[in-house]
Design a protein that fits this description.
The protein has 181 residues and is an alpha+beta fold. It is built from six helices and four strands, in the order ααααααββββ. A four-stranded antiparallel β-sheet has the order 1-2-3-4. Helix 5 packs antiparallel against helix 6. The chain is rod-shaped. It starts with a helix and ends with a strand.
Length: 181
């Protein structure tokens, strides 16, 4: 055996001993750092607005708010001379806040026209989507088909868009804001 081989044979166990001594603590330190980074990233994801938007994560709740608000809009914006009192009563139970105040102002005008012109308005939600949903508040975008018919005239259908805000009240969604688009 040459001198180089002898030195190499002696150094190899020393290197292995050093690796055995320093490698496990180094690996543990790396794992702790990586775990901390993943924990911070997970918290940021969980606390993001997208993660708290139930419209993106809870299809059952999204479907319920879509059904309830779509039905409410159809009932509140569908009327004829014979159903005005019922429409007004529906609006009082389905609308709240600013939406109720604005509707009251609009309804006074509608009431006069409906009787004079024998006007019938039928509103149907053609498409709807929930933009944001929490446990107690929802923001929706509704695409409507509204068909109006006046005595002696042909019926006309127009499309409309509404942004609607609804709040959960006593287990039911009540519309609190309506904005025409």
């Amino acid at each position: 055996m040459t001198t180089t081989e002898a030195v190499s044979a002696v150094e190899e166990p020393v290197i292995r001993m050093r690796l055995r001594r320093f490698l496990p603590p180094s690996l543990i330190a790396v794992l702790v750092v990586v775990s901390a980074v993943f924990l911070v990233m997970e918290r940021e994801l969980r606390d993001s607005p997208a993660a708290s938007n139930r419209a993106l994560t809870d299809s059952t709740a999204t479907g319920e708010v879509l059904d309830e608000v779509s039905t409410a809009v159809g009932r509140v914006f569908t009327y004829d001379p014979a159903t005005l009192a019922r429409t007004r009563q529906d609006a009082r139970s389905l609308l709240a806040g600013e939406a109720a105040k604005e509707y009251d102002g609009l309804f006074a005008q509608v009431q006069q026209r409906v009787g004079d012109q024998q006007l019938t308005l039928t509103t149907r939600v053609a498409r709807a989507g929930v933009r944001a949903l929490t446990a107690s508040r929802a923001e929706l975008l509704l695409f409507l088909d509204q068909t109006s018919e006046r005595r002696g005239q042909k019926a006309t259908t127009v499309a409309a868009q509404l942004s609607v805000t609804a709040e959960l009240d006593g287990g039911h969604w009540r519309i609190t804001a309506i904005k025409a688009r």
